[in-house]
Amino acid sequence: MNDIRYICPICGEHLARIEKSFVCENNHSFDIARQGYVNLLPVGQKHSLRPGDDKEMLNARRNFLNSGFYEPIANSVTSKIQTLTAKQKAPVIIDVGCGEGYYTRKIADNIVGSHCVGADISKDATRMACSRGKDIEYCVATASHLPFESKSVDVITAMFSLVCEDEFARILRNGGYIVEVTAGTEHLIELKQVIYDEVFPQDKHPAPCGEKFKEISCENFSYKIDVSSDLLKSLLEMTPHIRRINPEHRRRLDSLESLSLTISYWLTVRQAKS
Question: Which of 239, 241, 260, 240 lies closest to 249, judged by CA?
């Protein structure tokens, strides 16, 4: 199995694991937390005291994702990665913006022999993700400053999360891949119709490739789910909509016994140019 090679987020030198810490040659040291993650997000890369999703949002996301409603998304991603890495014995896969680890766990379970690492800017997220299994490494890091050596990664996944093309191109090996999932036009449209007075038409498509990547495929998928009242609350609380909804619309949503929802997403594969 290939080992992921971390770099120091302060000076950029290689980090060597020494007992329960990662240390570079300039003696910058980063302890491995009791839960198993390592915090590689220095203060200078933070934009707030506790960046990323908070515990309430993460707990809601875990509750909803564990219901299995998004399992078709996970399956389509793992199937795509299996095809892309079919000739590799031990691909290194980084799940950037891994959140509480649902997709990271699915990827690690289905890509045999892979070395899977989850990275998220939220310390609470990586701490929670560690509970999904000690066989996956997790680190606190921002997508714009990933603590991995250049040309050391085979696949990056971005599941409804930020893509930083320059940084992704830096850490990917020549010919490596970004597997990206973004929301489709009709994604959760029925939820929006309940919680907003007016829903403006949108035509959502993945952003075009930058100069450092070429598009390999771009597919749109959709399916329907029926969500009960308790899981509707979790779904709302795991999205940015929770910060925008007014009390009247919240009461309207809470009064529903269930709601039929459209799940619509784009699955895009980009390959790093040599």
Answer: 241
Helix residue ranges per DSSP H, the chain = 55-65, 71-84, 102-110, 123-129, 165-171, 189-195, 229-237, 247-254
CA dist 91 and 84 (Å) reads: 10
Query: In whole angstroms, what is the distance from residue 193 CA to residue 98 CA?
Result: 28
Task: Print the SS3 string covering 73-123.
Answer: HHHHHHHHHHHHCCCCCCCEEEEECCCCCHHHHHHHHHCCCCEEEEEECCH
Residue in the structure block whose two tokens are 């119709």: 193
User: Which phi and psi (to 5°) does residue 255 adopt?
Assistant: -80, -15
Q: What is the pLDDT of residues 19-65, one digit of tens each?
A: 999 999 999 999 999 999 999 999 877 666 676 789 999 999 999 99
If DSSP codes are grouped into helix, strand and coil, which group holds residue 265? Answer: strand
C-beta separation of 1 from 115 below 8 A: yes
Q: How far apart are CA 99 and CA 106, in angstroms?
A: 13
